[in-house]
């Protein structure tokens, strides 16, 4: 997948290290929006750190592990998605997502994650797609539900971040559920 069109004016692409400058600028601009939920948005404070982080995903992808994608709206990098994990042996993958505030509310993440699930399940034989979020992240939870995911349960205090021991909700979608929903 070099480019996958999401809408008339939006597309997703692999977020390769070559995009480090754009991605670092995106993080800088939208850190306040992302920081409550995403530790990497706090840690990646300059272009070299951002490039190294993207390189880690490029190396992971080369090993058939995690992957990261960017979303462009009218030519501007406005968000992204990742397979935080992609584990062929255990047939599981976990999706993570983010958007700039002005790109929210258009279904971009729902479309991008649907494409990722289709690829992971239909083309790569992954059986279980996971989505983790803190209980207070209403927009993230709405995405998981829109994608047809079910709440498996809560990992109590599994996400210590910014001095708070957050619970982590785990949602999942199984291959059989995905096939049922895409037949409808
Ligand atoms: C989580 C986050 C990515 C969700 O973004 P989002 O825009 O709500 O999600 P989508 O792109 O799927 O868009 C869904 C919205 O577009 C609307 N929409 C319009 N067309 C749509 C379509 N074709 N399909 C689905 N939704 C559509 C939906 O009604 C929904 O709007 P609403 O919530 O106002 O009702 C975003 O809020 C974010 O980046 N938050 C900060 C980072 C974060 O929390 N990341 C997740 C950590 S677990």
Automatic annotation (TrEMBL):
Domain named N-acetyltransferase: residues: 10-176
Enzyme Commission (EC) number: 2.3.-.-
Pfam family, one: Acetyltransf_3
Alphabetic keyword roster: Acyltransferase, Transferase
Any one GO MF annotation of this record: acyltransferase activity
Keyword Repeat: no
InterPro entries hit by this protein: Acyl_CoA_acyltransferase, GNAT_dom, Ribosomal_N-acetyltransferase
The keyword Protease belongs to this UniProt entry's keyword annotation: no
Protein's name in the database: GNAT family N-acetyltransferase
Lineage, top ranks: Bacteria, Bacillati, Actinomycetota, Actinomycetes, Micromonosporales
